[in-house]
Design brief:
This protein has 277 residues and is α+β, with helices and mostly antiparallel strands. It has 2 domains: 59 residues; 188 residues, OPCA outer membrane adhesin/invasin (Lipocalin, Beta Barrel). It has 2 helices and 10 strands; from the N terminus they run H-H-E-E-E-E-E-E-E-E-E-E. The chain has a 10-stranded antiparallel beta barrel with strand order 1-2-3-4-5-6-7-8-9-10. A hairpin with a 5-residue loop joins strand 7 and strand 8. The radius of gyration is 46 Å and the shape is rod-shaped. It starts with a helix and ends with a strand. The relative contact order is 0.11.
């Protein structure tokens, strides 16, 4: 009996440390878990907050982003315009009438009122083009012109553009002795079209006639200025214009005094129609 009691007591003593160790282990595990779980929860909350901030950042409107997008759209539009497959060929047909007052320096008190009717035709291939025209005055005076054109700025004739022109102008007129004479002047010109809206704009033309002698040895040089407004109705342009022209005729063998020079000044208003196709 004593021997069995001693054995039971020994087993009880050896089991007590084991239970204590297990209790310590579970206490340590629970303590670590209580520390780790708040950390995991805090990390998850932080990630959610960061994700929300990123979403707000992506959807936030700002002036900088709007300007950047606008610039990007503009570059895309320019690229599309540059790479568009529209035809490079352009043509126009024009009819015009101008009423003006003419004055000769030989007769300063006399001002004649006259009309000039003209027609023009132009054909462009890209930036280069050809123009031709003919005009007839009611005073039995006519002139024609033909020129080579180069568009320095602008992508089309019906667009804001700057055009340079160089060519030849022929003039047939009656001089002070009622003799017919013919001039063929080289000339240079610059034309500017400026659109204020999609359909309305202004046009200005400056033309310089280089000196040349006629078949009767009369020298002619001069210049002219045009300024006007226009409205485009699709293919049709309706315009009004003001024109001033100054011409200088010089022939030593002609006139009341040897070496006489005649200045001719013209100024008036008119209008016309121009058809683009």
């Amino acid at each position: 009996m004593d021997h069995s009691k001693n054995a039971t007591r020994g087993a009880t003593k050896s089991a007590a440390p084991t239970a204590t160790k297990r209790l310590l282990r579970w206490s340590l595990f629970l303590g670590l878990l209580s520390i780790a779980l708040p950390g995991f929860a805090l990390e998850g909350t932080y990630q959610v907050a960061i994700k929300k901030q990123e979403e707000k950042k992506q959807s936030r409107w700002s002036l900088t982003d709007w300007l950047a997008q606008k610039q990007k759209n503009r570059m895309m539009d320019l690229w599309l315009a540059k790479n568009s497959q529209s035809s490079p060929f352009e043509f126009f047909l024009e009819l015009e009438s101008v009423n003006y007052g003419a004055n000769l320096s030989a007769f300063p008190d006399e001002v004649s009122n006259r009309n000039v009717y003209s027609g023009r035709l132009a054909a462009y291939a890209g930036l280069a083009g050809l123009r031709g025209g003919y005009a007839q005055d009611t005073e039995e005076r006519s002139h024609w012109n033909a020129s080579l054109n180069l568009r320095l700025f602008g992508k089309a004739l019906q667009d804001t553009h700057l055009n340079l022109e160089y060519g030849l102008r022929g003039l047939t007129r009656k001089n002070l002795t009622s003799e017919s004479e013919v001039f063929q002047n080289q000339f240079g010109a610059a034309t500017l079209n400026l659109y204020f809206t999609k359909y309305f704009g202004i046009e200005g033309v400056y033309r310089k006639l280089l000196p040349v002698a006629s078949d009767r040895k009369t020298s002619l040089e001069g210049e002219s200025v045009d300024a006007g407004v226009f409205i485009d109705f699709s293919l049709l342009r309706v315009y009004g214009t003001w024109r001033k022209e100054s011409l200088k005729f010089d022939n030593p063998a002609q006139g009341s005094t040897p070496g006489s020079t005649t200045q001719e000044s013209r100024e008036g208003f008119g209008g016309g129609l121009r058809l683009y196709f």
